[in-house]
Design a protein that fits this description.
Belongs to the disease resistance NB-LRR family. InterPro entries: Apaf_helical, At4g27190-like_LRR, LRR_dom_sf, LRR_R13L1-DRL21, NB-ARC, P-loop_NTPase, Rx_N, WH-like_DNA-bd_sf. With about 1350 residues, the protein is of the alpha/beta class. The chain contains 38 helices and 51 strands.
Length: about 1350
């Protein structure tokens, strides 16, 4: 049950709806106005006394039960009044339609007989009146006192930029943790763990955020990652979160091996800092050990994990050292923080008595920053001393002595206005630690009538933002983050877990989140607002409303299938206000029954059209169709008169807009507008939409034939738009349409625009408003794309706020600074882009210079990122870039040296140019680049450079020498760069060198730098170890930190026979003794099994051998009669040389006949593919002679394999078994018992006709059988396992498919499997096991 009930906002909404002009007019027309007036009087009577009732309900079960009845009746009254309002809007919409279509609305929404409708609504209204009448009678027995709502004045003006207060009292702890994190001793370990421990509200997360964002920490670690763990310590989910944070892309796999390889690829042995925030797994040591193993496999030496937790036992399980037990704030620091929060907006007007009471309250907060912040935010809204005394004397302070922090936080909640209370409590719908998108949250508040209104619809969002900012100021929300993509601004926030607990206690089960760990069965009737991350309990769209009959908000993230039903009574009766749902196919027309709907989010769905019934959503305020496949919008959207937000961003297939969209007078968001002269979407429609705000993309501008139409659109009056994209179709550029310039001239925006993107403009020059400063003076980002006929840029260097400039495909552009530079005052030869932070110039075939004057130059004092791509005539790059951190140069055919004659205005000496801030540099496809400086490589200094990529620069003779921090180097197809020089780089940790498809180069020498951790070599034949190193090989045999080695087409590491070349090749392998991951690919010299090469690799854990066409695996061959008849079987038994080998993957080695190392007891994963001469039966028998730790086994493409070995029972740990493309195999061993097997995949094995009768797979979760037509049935024990499967796929197995389909023998067995695919599979993709990547990177 909810901790308390706040009904006054609901009653206020009902009162306002009962007086709505449309409702009044409609009820009068249908002769129900007397009942409406009676209902209004009843509601007003309740409204007078509801405040007293809410206060008395806290300690009175009878009053609380009465209020529950009142809430249900009030909700029903609102629904009935909404129906009246809906019918009034529908009648108004019908009256606006042509007569031919308004006589009868046939089909799905046929208008009822007016007498039937009147009778139905009269009964509903009478029922509500009767219910509320009884409630009022009971109310009179409580002797409630009439009182108005409490007056709470908010004197402070809030805005969206409100941020958290500065941290007070944690400076010492911050420095102590940073000192531990940066301790050089940690370099001795791969990973070390620190823990920050403390009770909720102490500020653990905030403190670690300070550490995480400290400049020293950012510079020390190559990668910093933040993952919120919360209560569910799920290893797979944590790893997926780390991958997403590291790469920006979410992993779709749940396979641990796949995730491990993805993790290793993304983290790439970098030294990283990982924060695991809010960990609770105090009894799950095994899970931590599993996660730690995965993290160690991907970590560079010196990586650190910081854990925040409330439980010291968590720190013990994670072996954290040191453990920082966070202390409470001192009284002095508590007062400083309270004072900052409470009096920041008082302008010094607080009295001494305010301060004395404030100090007492601050001391009572128990040194908890969260409580201090919340109380400071509360007291800042109250200036009367009486209110301060009242709160000081509150009994809730006694609860702090028993560590019940929630009661203290509830004190802050109790002093919120009623509308703010319900807005905050609604957020219990979100899972803990969820990132809430603020604008969407406000739209959900509006959809549920939580935002008070005076009858006007215009300022609801503004009021919503004010409420949010006030809640933020009072610490009900935190961690506000702003993400900006081009044109879009997304602001998110989170709730502290204690605040989330408070919200959950306040609302009880009215707001419910379905997680894997909880069930909704016992609370379904109570739920009003539902969110679901995992939806296994709800099977089908209709079932949501069957299971939750009183639901008003439904937010479902996971993709579902729509399962049509013959009866739709649940949809007809639902009172849903907000729905988020992802459809996998077209949306059913029955969705139109949801007449109460205000918020509909269908983003990322797969439908192509919306049903026309959506036109009847007259109450809909927000429609989100982002990233869908939609091609056309419903034709009569103009009747959706309450629509305020229409999101169409990412709808690349949208062809046109419906006619009459300009009639939507409340429309504020329209992210995409497609003009199409033949299908609709006239630019004139925008003329009246002056409330539009945020971002809009206007595409299809070539359809505008008249300048007057563009003028009527009146973009200049849409002053709330901050981002504008103007897009012509690319094909319109081919002929150079004649009206592009006048059209663009007419589309003049207002002068407050922040982002402007012009794409496909074919005019001969830009219009006047774009070539002069006043209109574009506030631009922060400008993107000019495919303006092929323009020869001159706007005066972008004069824009005081421009931070991002992108110029692409402007064929006629010759110089960046053109004739408009005449307007520059002072030194015209030096143009300064004063605040530009990001510059991209791309596909400019005629660009020759940065400045049109021969001796002109440009400077970019704040530039952080520079990309120059495909500018073949440009001869130089700017050198006055003191802040440049990331530089990408590609396809500059005329570039001869990085620093040339353009450095005359640079402060440094001409003989030494310093790129003092540059951290990442990429040089690609520069055919004439010869040097770093015209005076030599020693003349360019890169003191901060950490990553350097050089590709296809055939004339460049060296890498830079002044690179003290260079950690990552990739050199590809640069035949003049000597390996000898690379060998001496001081702290290099990652090296990739390649000569692809190039002739043999002259002899070179190489030694891995001593700090190297990862090495890739491709295409090297004529190299040998450095001479000076050869003398030290006896005393220094290994590179101690080199963990990953990939050798591709580099035969210098192998020799076909004895002799000097063999000895030289073996010397290289003495460097590699610490290697854990080894990949050998396309090495033709590898014929015999590389026993001597691998002899010293005692640390090796993973071995990949791919595409080695001459590898036989032989060492000492004894020829015997082969069971295959045409190849040799090798009987030699080899000594164990790889004691720690865990993963062996051999692929496409057609001559391979034996694998000598498969007897390794440590082997966990064995994959063999496309090795047709390998005797699989003999190999498997060798693998499983003794009980083994093998967890995954995959055999693919063994055409001669027919029989399994007899001792399969020796695989007790096998979890995944994958058999593909083995036509000769006929069956599994009888009585096969694999107790740990979770995934079984059988593909393209037509010889298998059945499973053995005794097959026992008690742990099976995923089963895939593809193209095995001989299999007709499951054995009994497997049938018993079917209901427990999570995934079943049966494709191209006709008999088995029939038994699994509706009416078949197995239909009832598989009905509860969450994810199943029976038949009709056409994908050419590989099985889930074959997607496992090896360490071979791109």
């Amino acid at each position: 049950m909810a901790l308390e009930m706040v009904l006054s906002p609901l009653i206020s909404v009902a009162v306002k709806k009962s007086a709505d002009a449309l409702v009044e007019q409609f009820c009068r027309m249908w002769r129900m106005d007397e009942n409406r007036k009676t209902l209004r009087r009843h509601l007003l009577a309740v409204q007078e006394k509801i405040e007293d009732a809410q206060e008395r309900a806290v300690g009175s079960p009878a009053m609380k039960e009465w209020m529950q009845e009142l809430e249900a009746a009030a909700q029903e009254a609102v629904d009935v009044l909404d129906e009246f309002q809906y019918e009034a809007l529908r009648s108004e919409a019908i009256s606006q339609q042509p007569k031919a279509s308004s006589k009868v609305i046939k089909g799905f929404f046929t208008h009822e007989n007016p007498f039937i409708f009147r009778d139905k609504m009269s009964k509903k209204l009478t029922k509500v009146l009767c219910t509320i009448g009884k409630i009022i009678s009971e109310m009179n027995t409580f002797n409630l006192t009439p009182r108005g709502p409490p007056t709470i004045t908010i004197d402070r003006q809030t805005q969206s930029s409100v941020m958290e207060s500065d941290i007070i009292g944690r400076e010492h702890e911050k420095e102590e943790i940073i000192r531990e994190v940066l301790n050089p001793q940690r370099e001795r370990n791969i990973i070390s763990v620190l823990a920050v421990i403390g009770m909720g509200g102490l500020g653990k997360t905030t403190l670690v955020q300070l550490v995480f964002n400290d400049k020293r920490v950012k510079e020390h670690f190559q990668l910093t990652l933040w993952v919120c763990v919360s209560t569910d310590f799920n290893v797979i989910n944590i790893v997926k979160s780390i991958i997403q944070v590291a790469s920006g892309n979410a992993s779709t796999s749940d396979n641990k091996e796949v995730l491990q390889h993805e993790l290793r690829k993304k983290l790439d042995k970098k030294r990283y800092l990982l924060v695991l925030d809010d960990v609770w797994n105090d009894d799950e040591r095994d899970k931590w050990e599993e996660l730690k193993m995965l993290l160690c496999s991907a970590a560079g030496a010196g990586s650190v994990i910081i854990v925040t937790t409330r439980n010291e036992s968590v720190a013990l399980i994670m072996e954290a050292f040191p453990k920082h037990n966070l202390a409470i704030l001192t009284n002095e620091d508590s007062w400083k923080l309270f004072e900052k929060r409470a009096f920041s907006a008082w302008d010094g007007k607080q009295t001494e008595e305010h301060r004395e009471i404030g100090k007492t309250i601050a001391h009572k907060c128990g040194g908890l920053p969260l409580v201090v912040n919340a109380m400071g935010g509360l007291m800042g809204t109250k200036k009367e001393l009486s209110a301060w005394h009242e709160i000081l004397k509150s009994r809730v302070w006694d609860e702090l002595q028993s560590k019940n922090v929630l009661f203290i936080l509830k004190l802050s909640y109790d002093h919120l206005p009623s509308d703010m209370k319900q807005c905050f409590a609604f957020c219990a719908i979100f899972p803990q630690d969820y990132e809430i998108e603020i604008e969407k949250l406000i739209q959900l508040w509006i959809a549920n009538d939580f935002i008070p209104t005076d009858g006007s619809m215009e300022n609801l969002e503004k009021k919503g933002r004010s409420i949010f900012n006030e809640l933020l100021h009072r610490s009900f929300f935190q961690n506000v983050k702003k993400e900006e993509t081009y044109g879009f601004s997304k602001i998110t926030c989170q709730m502290h877990d204690l605040m989330h607990d408070l919200a959950r206690k306040i609302v009880g089960n009215k707001c419910f989140t379905i997680l894997k760990s909880n069930s909704s069965e016992s609370v379904q009737e109570e739920v009003h607002h539902l969110s679901a991350q995992y939806i296994d309990e709800i099977r089908g769209f209709n079932n949501i409303f069957k299971q939750f009959p009183n639901i008003r908000t439904c937010l479902i993230d996971r993709t579902l299938y729509y399962e049509p039903r013959k009866k739709n009574s649940y949809l007809k009766s639902c009172s849903l206000r907000a729905l988020k749902y992802q459809f996998r196919n077209n949306i059913p027309k029955e969705i139109g029954y949801m007449k109460h709907l205000r918020y509909l989010d269908l983003s990322a769905s797969f439908f192509t059209i919306l049903p026309e019934t959506i036109n009847k959503f007259y109450n809909l305020q927000t429609l989100i169709l982002s990233k869908t496949e939609i091609q056309e919008l419903p034709s009569k959207m103009r009747y959706m008169i309450n629509l305020r937000h229409l999101f169409l961003d990412g709808c690349s297939k949208l062809q046109c807009m419906p006619i009459g969209l300009g009639q939507l007078k409340y429309l504020q968001t329209l992210t995409k507008y497609v003009l199409n002269s033949s299908k609709g979407g006239n630019i004139r429609e925008l003329s009246q939409l002056n409330l539009l705000s945020g971002y809009i993309s206007l595409s299809g501008l070539e359809s505008i034939r008249d300048k007057e139409d563009a003028q009527i659109a009146n973009l200049a009056k849409k002053t709330n738009l901050y981002s504008l994209e103007l897009k012509w179709d690319e094909t319109s550029n081919e002929g150079g349409t004649t009206n592009s310039k006048p059209i663009l001239e007419a589309l003049i925006p207002h002068d407050k625009l922040k982002y402007l993107h012009i794409n496909g403009y074919s005019g001969s020059g830009f219009p006047k408003w774009l070539m002069e400063v006043p209109i574009i003076r506030n631009l922060k980002k400008l993107k000019l794309q495919q303006c092929i006929n323009c020869a001159e840029l706007p005066p972008v260097w004069l824009l005081s706020f421009l931070e991002d400039l992108h110029i692409e495909k402007m064929d006629n552009l010759i110089s960046i600074v053109g004739s408009t530079g005449k307007h520059v005052e002072g030194n015209k030869s030096l143009i300064i882009f004063r605040v530009l932070k990001e510059l991209t110039i791309s596909d400019l075939p005629n660009l020759e210079s940065w400045h049109e004057e021969d001796f002109g130059s440009v400077a970019f004092p704040e530039l952080k990122t520079l990309s120059i791509i495909d500018c073949p005539k440009l001869k130089s790059i700017p050198t006055h870039v003191p802040s440049l951190e990331d530089c990408h140069i590609k396809k500059m055919n005329n570039l001869i040296s990085i620093v040339g004659s353009t450095c005359k205005h640079v402060e440094e000496s001409k003989s030494l140019i310093t790129f003092r801030a540059l951290k990442e540099l990429t040089l690609s496809r520069l055919p004439n680049l010869e040097s770093w400086h015209k005076e030599g490589s020693e003349s360019v200094d890169f003191p901060e450079l950490k990553s350097l990529i050089i590709k296809h620069c055939p004339k460049l003779k060296s890498v830079p020498t002044r690179v003290p921090l260079l950690a990552s180097l990739k050199v590809s197809n640069c035949s003049e760069i000597k390996l000898r020089q690379i060998s001496h780089l001081p702290i290099l940790s990652k090296l990739s060198i390649a000569l692809e498809n190039m002739p043999n180069r002259e002899l070179d020498a190489f030694r891995p730098p001593k700090t190297l951790e990862k090495l890739k070599m491709h295409g090297y034949e004529n190299i040998y170890p450095l001479e000076e190193e050869e003398k030290q090989l006896i005393s220094c045999q290994t590179n101690p930190v080199l963990r990953e080695l990939e050798i591709t087409r580099s035969n210098c590491f192998f020799s076909c026979g004895p002799g000097p070349s063999k000895e030289v090749a073996l010397k290289f392998w003495k460097y590699f003794a610490a290697v854990e991951d080894l990949a050998i690919t396309d090495c033709d010299n590898l014929v015999l099994w590389p026993k001597e090469e691998l002899r010293n690799l005692e640390c090796l854990k993973r071995l990949y051998i791919w595409n080695c066409s001459n590898l036989t695996g032989a060492l000492i061959v004894q020829q015997q009669a082969s069971p295959l008849g045409d190849s040799s079987s090798l009987t030699v038994t080899l000594p164990q040389s790889l004691p720690h080998l865990e993963y062996l993957d051999i692929n496409n080695c057609p001559e391979l006949v034996q694998i000598p190392v498969v007897c390794s007891e440590s082997l966990k994963n064995l994959e063999i593919a496309k090795c047709p001469k390998l005797n699989i039966e003999e190999m498997l028998a060798h693998v499983i002679t003794n009980p083994t730790e093998l967890e995954e086994l995959s055999i693919d493409g063994s055409i001669h394999w027919r029989v399994w070995p007899d001792n399969m029972e020796h695989l007790p740990s096998l979890e995944i078994l994958n058999i593909e493309n083995c036509p000769g195999i006929e069956s599994f061993p009888p009585g096969l018992h694999l107790p740990s097997l979770e995934r079984l995949n059988i593909e393209n094995c037509p010889g298998i006709e059945s499973f053995p009768p005794g097959l026992h797979l008690p742990s099976l979760e995923r089963l895939n059988i593809t193209n095995c037509p001989g299999i007709e049935s499951f054995p009994l024990r497997l049938q018993q396992r079917l209901p427990s499967l999570q995934y079943l796929r049966i494709v191209h197995c006709p008999a088995l498919e029939r038994r699994c389909r509706s009416g078949g023998d197995y239909c009832h067995l598989i009905s509860r499997i969450p994810d199943k695919r029976i038949g009709t599979y056409k994908s050419k993709g590989k099985s889930f096991l074959k997607n496992l990547p090896c360490i071979r990177g791109s």
